[in-house]
User: Fold these one by one.
Assistant:
Number 1:
Amino acid sequence: MNEKIKVLTLSMAESLGGLLEGVTDEKQQIAIIAKAIENFRFEDDKSGYFFVYKKTVNVAHPVRKDLIGSDLKEAKDAKGVQYVVELYNQAKNGGGFVFFDFTKGGENSTVAQKNA
């Protein structure tokens, strides 16, 4: 699973890099990114998707629009994992994975373990 997510993420990053080439306005960049990830799903049940943070502030989320614009540095899952802070730390350190419980996308909106 981790290898699949890694390949998907690198592919999406490459695609977004092309879409953002020459775009210097941050609001435009975010709008382009949000549009690009809006309908992209993976996994058989379509529960896999991309979301975007600027540090710990959510700037694009195709499933949880209510989170956009929120600083989630204090967010914890039911097990106490500060998943947004952990994701930010992984990103600052060159990448990695964080496991946490979160609303599952797709047709089943229950809470499930996520790997990001």
Number 2:
Amino acid sequence: MEHIFITDLDGTLLNSKGFLSDESEQLLREIVETSPHQLGFATARGLTSAVNVIQQVPWNFPVILNNGAVIYDWQAQRILKIQGMETVAVQAVLKRGEAQGISPFIFTLNESFEEGIFYQRNPSKGLTYFMDKRPNDPRFIEVDHLAEQQKTRDTQNLVLMFIEEYETLVPLKLYIQEYFGAELQCLLMQDQYIPNQFVLEISSAKATKEHAIVFLQEQYGIQGERLHLFGDNLNDQGMLSIQANTYAVGNAHPVILDIVSHKIPTNDQDGVARTIKLLVNQVL
């Protein structure tokens, strides 16, 4: 019987430099090409960003993008589901951020599946660092005022991302939890690549990795014993609480290490690819 393997990317499948190692790529390609099992991934990245680091793998199961806001059929190159944010909620968060003197990236998607990352003039140090790591990326669009831009563009708002110091983001997170607890999801995490900066990601409460995986389970009739999930950070916590076989790489956040069924080698030791290969060869 075929099994489904879904892995997080950054900090889990990708190494500490944010790349897919040659060994992991080779192992995953072999699994897809020589076994009946299926591979997918669940990431906070959008499609363009994900393609830049994992396009060498012939993923044969739908993938989860933007932390669950988008479910995408990698092989057919079509969107299966989008879960955006309500405009009223976006405007409220922008207004609150403006009162604190901060503004986010807004990750968007239009009807032609064109991605945009809108930001306001004079971005913060964290946002600037994020863009500098992605030179000449056409998704970045500077505007004079984010709130006004959002009123006029016909796009799906997927994720708001603030990158600031921890103390700056906590009041905003608390505000959102108090006023939009049932409507919006807030994830506050230390950035894996930007020194001394934290990321606050805000999305629809239904745009989570776990919601996306449950949707795929229903669509494809996948039982928990056939499902294998891999993660490392707090945005994987809900996903790794699903009834399934769950795995954390050795470099994972302590909370994640505590909730999974299995602990495997780190991302720099090709833990995910080696574990899947081992399962395919010896267990399944």
